[in-house]
Amino acid sequence: MSDPPVDSRDALWASDRTRVAVCVRVVPVPGVTYEGLRDEVFTKVEWGDRNLRWHESRKATDADSPSGWSMECTASCLAHGDEQLVVHRIEACACDVVHEADLLVSAPCHLPLLTVTATDLAFDAESGLAIGGAEPKIHDTEKNEKTETAAHIVRSAGVALARTALPRKEIDRAMAAVTRRISLAEHALARNHPDIKVGQDVFAFKEMGSRGGNRFDLLFPKFVGDETLEDDDDDAGAAGRLVDDAQKLESHEQDSTDDDTETRDTEFIHRLARTAPWVRSVVNPLLETDDSRRDETRGDDDDDDDDASKAFAKNNPNASPNSWWCDVSVVYSKPGCGNQDWHCDGRHIAGASQSDFGGKGTSPPYAICVFVPLIDLTQQTGFTQFWPGSHRVDGLIGFGAAVEVLRGSVDGLVDAGGCVVYDYRCMHRGMGNFTENTTRPVLQFLYSKGNYRETKNYGARSLFIKG
Hints:
22% strand, Alpha-Beta Plaits
């Protein structure tokens, strides 16, 4: 069924209106197969005036359907203020096969309709090969790639999980470094900023920021040196210079920490950032770039790109112009912290492509984040929950509740020393810590292409300077 021709002026006006995506539940008439229902709806339900287009569908168990199942599908059309009219269109145009239809979600952008589990997102950290099963449920139709590697999974779903990645020795060494770093920061916070009610007030320093309630993000110092840090048993590494306000160059007071220990901790953490198995198997394949893709990594402050490039070259003397840089922090959640709201750490770069309503056209990632918990994650300790597929568009920001309706969330539950690798644009939320006395420490490695700079997640003043 098709609409009669519309006046050309109306068509011109309609073409300039904003599109909207809808996800609808379609209940079949008893006896209709899923394939038959899909074919009828996708071919017969038209709406020329609203430029209705069909995108994806899936079969869902449905206790309220006479057949025990229903079809959930996504479409997009020109916005008209009442997306419920799409449902009426389905019931009218495909009445022979449709018992009823309901609107589930509407959004101003592509709606991911992925049905995946943590198993589907699993990979081996050493090899980078997907281990989710012989018939992966994730398939990047844009590149016609199956989930053969972790890089494929991240490009398609935005997140991949490795249950284990680091040996016990490195987990313990990292825990020791994290414990000392937290102690140093909290001591400075109490001494230099006693007015802050830790766990209640929102604050942002150059080295540390609150992430809601009893959740904090604490950067490790940057390491700048002319030599590459070498692996060794005593964690001494090569000689270098620590660049961090923890050196307290502007403060004459010294915190109660051993400078040599802090230096060794920083050397170890940054060596780990370069030599951990996920670097070779996932980060490098995802952040490889060439001259033709440099413009896709430009930030909002494009006028400062030359300064950023010079700083990158100075701080990474052994890196090629297209190499990534890495910041390392510990995100630690204390008992009593609650669930975060759905959010993404980084939006799409200005000028870079976002997907169309069918999920195609997304620019490659400019930054990859790796979470490495230092304790086994459980429902009690909490974890990070992800929305696979949400990395393709910014328009889902503010629509986090939709993931519950779409049953699209995946729990990032991995063991101590395991890792969760995700596109920096992927929506997620930290879950609450419901233990009585266990802090949840997670190392966060932010890998990014050379001329992107993270500016929003920390403040301008130093934690280690009074006032």
